[in-house]
Structure formats: C-alpha cells, structure tokens
Design a protein that fits this description.
heterodimer; A: alpha/beta; Aspartate Aminotransferase, domain 1; Aspartate Aminotransferase, domain 2; 2 domains; globular; B: alpha+beta; Sufe protein. Chain: A; 3-stranded antiparallel β-sheet; binds pyridoxal-5'-phosphate
Chain lengths: ~425, ~160
C-alpha cells in the first residue's frame, strides 16, 4: 500500500516550518530527504558497531564488515546485478563517472575515437569525457534534441559509427525530466561494438532499475538522491569489462600482495576501493534501499507519474503569462521535474519569493549549463518531486508561482 | 517585522521600481572607463561605462546587465549614487557599501546610507542574495581600477 501521508510521517524534516509555513520540499533532483529508518541506521552503526571493515578479527569489525557487505548485496539486488562484486562503492555519481573515464577510458579511448552523448547531460557526465577527449584527441558528438526536450532517435544510427567507443546517456534528465529510451540506445551502441553507459542518478531513485534488462555496460548513481546519506555512490560495471579495468585509486584495502617494489590487486570489487570506505553511509544506503523496496519501486513510479500528470494539468490550467515550461508533456516519458522560465521575472527572485512561502525549489543552470543556454535562458526555476510529495503541494507551488508573477509584475501580492 | 513578508527584501518597492525601470541604461558614445562583473553561478552580469570630466569626476555612468531584480536594482541605484562623485569618493563609497553588506544584520548604524541605497541593506535578510547586490559594485570597482586607461568604444563587451 502506498499511503503518502503515512510515508511523510517517516521523514522528520517534512514537519519543519519555514517562515511559519509548512516546508514544501521540491528540490529532490538535487538531493532527497531521509526517512527516520536511514537516520537510525547511521546512529546504530556509530553507537553499536563502529569499526573498520575487512581488517581485524574482533567482533565489532566482523559485524561492521557483515553489514557493509550486506548493504552492497542489497544495492546489487535493487538494480538486479548478476552479482554484488560488480557493485563498486564510490562517493557519488560524479566519482563513478570519473572512475570510468580514467580507468576504462584511458585504456580504451584512442585518437579519433568517438564518444556519443546527449545534449542534456549533467556536467558530471560531460566534463570527464571532455577532459578524456582532450587527453586522447578523441571526438565528442551529441544526439540532437527535439523542441519538446526529447532525443531525436532518428539521428542516432548515423551518429554511431565504427569509431564510436562509448555511448553515454542520462536515463532521466535532472533539468528537463525527460526519460530517455536508454534500452534502444544501448542496442544501437552494441550493434556497432560501442560500450553503453547509463547515468542513473535521477532514474534509480524514481523507477525500477534492471541492469540486465537494460543491458548497460556501466551504470552510475548517487545514494543521496534516493533517501540515502550523502557521500556514498555506486558504480556497476559488467563483469567482462570490470575484469579488464585497472584501479583508479591505489593504496590500502585494494591490494592482494605488496612488496617494496610492487603490488597486486585484490579481487572485485575491492580492487576499486582504495582506503577505508564510507562504512556508515553504505549501511545507510542499504537501509534506504530497504525502505524503497518496502514501498515498491513500481508504486513509487506510479505515484510520481500521477503527480506529474496532475502538475502538468495544473500548470496548463493556470496558463501563466510568459511562462515557459520545458520538457516533454507526456508523463510516460517524463519524471517529476518541472523546469521553467518566466520572461520578465528572474529565477532568483521567483526562488526567493517561493522560499518565503516555505517552498524549496532550485534556481540556476542545474549543472547543465550548455543545455539551459540552448533553451535561450541563463537559468530556470526547477521544482522536482519525490515519493513523499502530494497534489496539495503541487497546488501550493502553482499558486505560489502565480502570486510571485503578480507581485513582481504589478507590485501587488 | 512580519517574517512572511516578501517586502523585507524588495523593500519599499524601491528595488522593484529600480528593477522595472532601471536608471542610466543608455549606452554612451564616449566614455573613459568600463567595468564588468559576472556571477558564474547564475549567469548574472553587469557592465558599466563611465564618462569623466577632467581626470577625476564621474560625470556620466551608464550600465547594462542581465539578471535578477536585486542585481538590476543595485546597478541602477549605484549609478545614481556615484554620479557627480570623484573617482576617489566613489571608491570609498564602494568600500563602505561592501563592508556594510558583509556586516552581520543589526550592526549597521542608523543612516549609514542615505537615500535609496539603504534599500539594498535589506537584502541582508536573505544572505544568499547578498552576492546579487554586490555584483554591480564589483563591476564598479573594476571600472574605477582602470582609471586613466582610455578605452575604445569597439572594445566594449556587449
Ligand atoms: C543526472 C545527474 N547525473 C549526475 C549527477 C551528479 O550526482 P552527484 O553530484 O551526486 O555526483 C546528478 C546530480 O545532480 C544528476 O542529476
């Protein structure tokens, strides 16, 4: 049963007031709030079994190691990975992407090779490839986008050539909400022998994920956008590729045997986890996965699809003068992200106005500067929903925007 | 003060008025100094052109920019405040203003700023927006620091 009011009770922060108004938290694409269960898991670790993992025979260390590996197992099952040793802990999606660019990219991308991206990538799935391409004299290409913020899939076949070594795409755009046809992209990439990477930072928190069905070679995501703590992220890589990859960071914990001259590497996944890992937050992420499983990811997606449909209708009905809402208007291919611009009222002013009403939205370029610029604006206002948001909150948002526009335009509230 | 009142920031509507009808925005044919500032986080920008009388007196100052109400109002209010000042006086005003904006709320002396400039002080109720109010002043500092250099109109960043 998906009972949003009951779910809200699990999130202590949602009962906060901001300037005397109930908090309406609509900045979930930046980071999600955390349920009591996740916060408790962190406290439990620090209070009851804080110890380093994989070293030491004492009781606490063994318990910490079990819970830490247990969390990896949970994440592995959550994305339907064949095995948990293909799940590498990182700090966040950005670090996962850098790991791929350095470890896999350095060895496999050569002069003249092509990397195909979408124009709606977050900076973290753009800049590492730009840097790699610069080091290697490789070429970056982009799939064109249609006016409604969807990819022009008709152009993909001609863009993927025998020089293409990697196709990397965001599953759900953090700036537009667009859900991209990643399965189809992956098929096309593989037909030409290119590897396929999915940036799941915005999709894994909001819909069921199945890496075997997606048939992606790499998947990256962050724990903090899916009810987990900050500082813990995930990299999934197919076994035959992960086996060939050299470590990104070296040092303790990732070695098998070390002499004064050289070292050999530990088995997967520890080969990629130098140093003491983020134990507490991995366990916290494991607890977040438990929480999401208890709701059911299909139900999460359905709830958000309903909210998206409701919000699209509300915005359409409000028919706000001079307001441009970006992204596709079909809830089947759109997540709960509403990015918009108002011709004469600056996003910052709108954001400040809404904040005074307790509504937390993001303003700016959402780490997708080239995309936001291509929309012809310097910044947008973005409201992004999650499983605990309600239709009532959509109403508060639409009313808030309506009021704000009136205030800044004719000075009457 | 009503905690909910958005007028805390866009106080007395001075800021809104200056944002909707910014003063001193027609570009000059002849000018002596230019200054620019950009906030990379939000893309806001401000450009100033200053025409001097003699080597020192700010006779005319015009600005162009793109950004939020506070940024635009700050540029407009600033341009009015420094017209007729010497370069030295304008520099001092700028230093004083920036200091005041950075002081904790409540530590500003009564009447620290005369006239409409004081409207900008209210932006301090919103710490994240203080940089919006300061952008124009960075552009002014940029212009004043170039005193004596003569700039060709063609080189103006638009
Ligand atoms: C689509 C997408 N990719 C990558 C990232 C980067 O995530 P992180 O900042 O946690 O590394 C984000 C976060 O904003 C995102 O929305």
């Amino acid at each position: 049963m998906f009972d949003v009011e009951k779910i809200r009770d699990d999130f202590p922060i949602l009962s906060k007031t901001i300037y005397g108004n109930p908090l309406v938290y609509l900045d979930n694409a930046a980071t999600s709030q955390k349920p009591r269960q996740v916060i408790d898991a962190l406290v439990d670790y620090y209070e009851n079994y804080n110890a380093n993992v994989h070293r030491g025979v004492h009781t606490l260390s063994m318990e910490a190691t079990d819970k830490f590996e247990d969390a990896r197992e949970k994440v592995s099952t959550f994305i339907n990975s064949e095995s948990s040793d293909l799940v590498v802990w990182t700090r966040n999606a950005s670090e996962s992407l850098n790991l791929i660019a350095y470890s896999w990219g350095e060895a496999n991308v050569h002069e003249g090779d092509e990397i195909l991206l979408t124009p709606m990538e977050h900076h973290s799935n753009l800049v590492p490839w730009q840097e790699l391409a610069r080091r290697k004299n490789a070429v970056i290409k982009f799939i064109p986008m249609r006016g409604n913020g969807t990819l022009d899939m008709d152009k993909v076949d001609e863009l993927i050539t025998e020089r293409t070594v990697l196709v990397s795409a965001v599953h759900m755009s953090n700036a537009l909400g667009t859900i991209n046809p990643v399965r189809e992209l992956g098929e096309k990439a593989h037909q030409q022998g290119a590897k396929f990477l999915v940036d799941g930072a915005q999709s894994v928190p909001h819909m069921p994920t199945n890496v075997q069905e997606l048939d992606c070679d790499f998947l990256v995501f962050s724990g903090h956008k899916m009810l987990g703590p900050t500082g813990i992220g995930v990299l999934y890589v197919k076994r035959d590729i992960l086996n060939t990859m050299e470590p990104f960071l070296t040092g303790g914990e990732m070695v098998l045997d070390v002499s004064y001259q050289e070292a050999s590497w530990a088995d997967l996944p520890m080969k990629f986890e130098a140093g003491t890992p983020n134990i507490a937050d991995s366990i916290g992420l494991g607890s977040a996965v438990d929480y999401l499983n208890s709701l059911g990811m299909e139900n999460v997606r359905t709830h958000e699809k309903n909210l998206t449909t409701y919000a699209l209708n509300r915005f359409k009905k409000a028919d706000l003068d001079g307001m441009d809402l970006f992204g596709p208007d079909d809830p089947e291919i759109r997540g709960g992200v509403f990015s918009f611009n108002t011709v004469d009222v600056h996003p910052h002013d709108l954001g400040t106005f809404l904040d005074r009403k307790g509504i937390a939205v993001r303003t700016g370029h959402h780490c997708a500067m080239p995309l936001v610029r291509s929309l012809g604006v310097a910044a947008t206002v973005r409201a992004s929903f999650y499983l605990y948001n309600t239709e009532r909150e959509v109403d508060i948002l639409v009313d808030g925007v309506t009021e704000a526009l009136r205030y800044f335009r004719d000075g009457s509230e | 003060m009503d905690q909910n009142n958005i007028d805390d920031i866009y106080r007395d509507r001075v800021i809104l008025d200056h944002c909707r009808n910014p003063r001193n925005t027609s570009l000059l044919d002849h000018f002596d100094l230019t200054g620019d500032a950009i906030n990379p986080f939000c893309g806001d920008e401000v450009h100033f052109q200053i025409g001097l009388r003699g080597e020192n007196l700010i006779e005319r100052i015009q600005f162009s920019g793109d950004g939020c109400a506070i940024n635009m109002a700050s540029g407009s209010l600033l341009s009015e405040a420094v017209t007729g000042l010497t370069v030295k006086e304008a520099t001092q005003l700028s230093i004083r203003f920036v200091e005041s904006m950075r002081k904790p709320i409540g530590e500003n002396a009564e009447g620290e700023f005369i006239g409409e400039l004081s409207a900008l002080i209210s932006v301090k109720n919103f710490p994240v927006r203080v940089k919006c109010a300061l952008l124009a002043w960075s552009a002014l500092e940029d212009a004043l620091s170039k005193n004596k250099s003569t700039i060709e109109p063609d080189s103006l960043p638009m």
